């Protein structure tokens, strides 16, 4: 297996050759582009079909999103700045520049060779300009935000032709609990190869930063357990402690049944939390995080569907702070005190719905219309799509991300391993103990299990 920390060597002529010819065909609407790396082909598809980025764009746009950084994120940026300055000392002498970018693709700072920095300014490769894929197409920073591990984008692999003279490598630093990107560290060169050490330099910087984040997450987990223990001694209500993303750190016996997690057992590694798989609870926790960040005395309540229950259960949410920092929430079941968290209040993140799904057959990219997909299944480290063309490996690395993208277009999470197309369900089979299985309308009439925790949502969706 190829070393994950190594980047493939860049072409001496980054703007020409087979990739440039493939890029020209793909921009004109052709889908069959042999000779293009799958990571790049998938990114091009996002740029053309989902983000609609103009390949004739000549410079990155100004970052317009308002900064939304937590104090923990500021610590990450400071640590990465320290690491970036050290990397820049080496790559600057080779004509390279180093950037630190936040999760929106906004460049926060850059260092390196002065002549290259001047050239970078021509295309707005500079602080306060946005290099996410949806803003600037395929590039080392934006594509790193969309994938895991180090990424290199070379010459004509960039979506925008004006950037074909650049060779860039980037790696995203992700939250050790939520796995969401926080920042990107990248190295860029003008019309030259990346330094041999680029991959290892980026990986080492990301690893050292994650070590710092793990220490913080471990400390926060211990503080949440302590707050839970104190609250548990004062109340007999079912109680759980969740982090700011809605993942469970610890729950008592009753709460564990409602949440579908182990009882009274913190994760061995406090950075690995339990995912309850309850969308309403996760949304409420994230909403509470936003409220408490601005109003420390805020206490809320709402109703959520829990496992093994057909009716919603009232919950109370009380933020937990440590040294003035919000670290999570105590969730008590059966409580209804505090400000009501209504669905109308919860801010819905903007989401671009895919017109087609991308799958891979060998090295070929397959574009699927949504009705062609019967269901998606997570198996090991891959997501597989059951389609009218047979089983195909999805380009998406995460079933959670696929579920989020398809939630509003007729797909539903029915099991921790399955997302189904509701329009492709032919029959519903009940087991002896009331468990449900879905018989799909594909050629083999495959059966998809429904977990007990997702059964109420399935019944609501199918009106049964």
UniProtKB/TrEMBL annotation:
InterPro entries: GAF-like_dom_sf, LytR-like, LytTR_DNA-bd_dom. One of its GO terms (molecular function) is DNA binding. It comes from Streptomyces kebangsaanensis. Residues 357-464 form the HTH LytTR-type domain. Gene3D superfamilies: 3.30.450.40, LytTr DNA-binding domain. It holds the Pfam family LytTR. Keywords: DNA-binding. PROSITE patterns: HTH_LYTTR. PANTHER family: STAGE 0 SPORULATION PROTEIN A HOMOLOG, TRANSCRIPTIONAL REGULATOR-RELATED. This is LytTR family transcriptional regulator DNA-binding domain-containing protein.
